[in-house]
Design brief:
It is a single chain. Helix content is 61%, strand content 5%. The radius of gyration is 16 Å and the shape is globular.
């Protein structure tokens, strides 16, 4: 398994594990205000997943998509699609050696050029930043079995490389 497979696999699996723990929470708990980041678990996961969707679509040459449903089952389905699309894009970039190819980021004013390698790295590190906030919120809510979220912990749970 190469580094890209490890990073993509860890990103998708860890986000999924945290979201699965949210499935047992009430709407009030999902929307409880914390003095941290995006302030609620629902907003945090919605942001993580939308970020994956939007950056992948823009790097692939498409428009920024509309945000979708934010129920836990819908977020899980969106995560599965977004992670698969991001993995396909990232593996294509790696296979073709396009890490330094640029794309136009329409969210900047005016739009700017960014590299595919930088965009992919941004998505993965951005997710980890917000997952750390979600871990804190879940623990504050008393949720048991919240994973630490590190790559080595993921690798012990999922020893095989994810497939397209």
């Amino acid at each position: 398994m190469d580094l890209l497979d490890r990073l993509l696999g860890h990103d998708a699996w860890t986000t999924r594990q945290l979201l699965l723990r949210c499935g047992k929470l009430t709407d009030a708990e999902l929307d409880r205000d914390f003095d941290l980041g995006l302030r609620t678990l629902r907003r945090t996961f919605r942001h993580i997943i939308f970020n994956m969707e939007a950056w992948t679509d823009v790097m692939a040459g498409g428009p920024i998509p509309a945000d979708g449903d934010a129920s836990v089952p819908a977020l899980l389905a969106r995560l599965d699609r977004a992670a698969a699309n991001l993995a396909k894009l990232a593996r294509d970039v790696a296979r073709k050696g396009l890490w330094d190819k640029t794309f136009r980021d329409p969210s900047d004013s005016p739009p700017t050029e960014k590299t595919l390698g930088g965009g992919i790295a941004h998505v993965l590190t951005h997710s980890m930043h917000h997952r750390a906030q979600a871990i804190y919120m879940l623990r504050r809510l008393g949720v048991e079995g919240v994973p630490e979220g590190d790559v080595l912990g993921w690798e012990q749970q999922v020893p095989q490389a994810p497939t397209d």
